[in-house]
Amino acid sequence: MPLYKNNTSHAYKRGFFYMKKTFYFVFTKSIGLYLNLLSFVFPKKANLLAFQLFSQPRKGKLSKNKIPKTLAKANLEKIQFQEQEIATYIWKGNETVILLVHGWESNSSRWKKMLPYLQDTDSTIIALDAPGHGLSGGKEFTITKYAEWIDVIVKKYQPKYLIGHSFGGKTCLYYQSHYKNSSIDKMVILGAPNDFKTILHNYTKLLSLNSSIAEGLDEKCSKIFQKKLDDFTGKHFVSKIKTKGFIAHDINDTVVLFDQGKKIATAWEDAIFIETLGLGHALHDDTLYKQVVSFLFETKQFEV
């Protein structure tokens, strides 16, 4: 009888998984079909909707009435900037400030597992929610806008270290290459993408968008970034910075492929590159956290 129950349970789970996968496939292709048809009649509207779908996160928001315990222990401060609120969380410590920058469709609670290791250094830890994420305002997320928000926090709190994950990591690279803030001594970049054009291509492929919309998205993003997408890469950013770096990327990362991190590492003159195995895109690991702290504070000999 127990064997029968287990088999039934596994069959149900497999069935539910494939049902979700099929629904997601049909849903995305239906959206793509609608946008493609719309582009023949109202091309500008189709391009706008396609960009909104690309730039507006579908998850990562937080409810004021249901804040994760990790964030509830911090001092929440909302900073007004360009008629929007930047949600920041502060774990007070000494004068050394570390700024945490999360990635796409996430929020500041993603730092829950790393936080205790950083707090052991007695530093002041600050995290911010990206545009359209967590408790922050806005709906649209772009790297350039995120970098503007980071600059607001950096000017106010003068952090010595930046730690960014995924798109947050790439934004940190963009920020330091364009803003060149002298208060930033070191940066830790975890699972960050190098190429933006590849991400945009994957999006158009997922929805099976026609060439007209794909070209429109390319032009829109190039206009926002004020440069060609071929040049909007992590390796271009790091070639312009002198800040010391620590890059970690998992060999089996299926969200941001390993070669993306390697491209950044090969172009960053003063950076250490750590290859992990089995940590996935999240890169949650006690040993890795200790390596990060060791890199930042040079408390013991760093081991690669």
Set out the fold topology.
Blueprint: H1 2-41, H2 43-55, H3 69-72, E1 75-81, E2 84-91, E3 97-101, H4 115-119, E4 124-128, H5 143-157, E5 161-165, H6 167-179, E6 186-190, H7 197-207, H8 211-225, H9 234-238, E7 244-250, H10 258-267, E8 271-276, H11 286-297
Helix pairs in contact: 1-2, 2-8, 5-6, 7-8
How are the strands ordered across the major sheet?
1-2-4-3-5-6-7-8
CATH homologous superfamily of the largest domain?
Alpha/Beta hydrolase fold, catalytic domain
Estimate the global geometry from the Cα principal axes: globular
Radius of gyration: 21 Å
The name of the CATH topology of the largest domain is: Rossmann fold
Low-confidence stretches: 1-5, 16-20
What is the number of E strands? 8
The first-level CATH class name of the largest domain:
Alpha Beta
User: How many separate domains?
Assistant: 2
Secondary-structure-based class equals alpha/beta
N-to-C series of helices and strands: HHHEEEHEHEHEHHHEHEH
Largest sheet: 8 strands, mixed
Mean pLDDT, all residues: 90
Descriptive key words:
304 residues, alpha/beta, disordered N terminus
Written description of the protein model:
By secondary structure, this protein is α/β, with parallel strands linked by helices. The protein folds into two domains: 2-56 and 207-221, no CATH class; 69-195 and 233-297, Rossmann fold (3-Layer(aba) Sandwich). 47% of the residues lie in helices and 16% in strands. It has eleven helices and eight strands. The protein has helices at 2-41, 43-55, 69-72, 115-119, 143-157, 167-179, 197-207, 211-225, 234-238, 258-267, 286-297; strands at residues 75-81, 84-91, 97-101, 124-128, 161-165, 186-190, 244-250, 271-276. It has an eight-stranded mixed sheet with strand order 1-2-4-3-5-6-7-8, with helices on both faces. The N and C termini lie far apart (51 Å). The model is unreliable at 1-5 and 16-20 (pLDDT under 50).
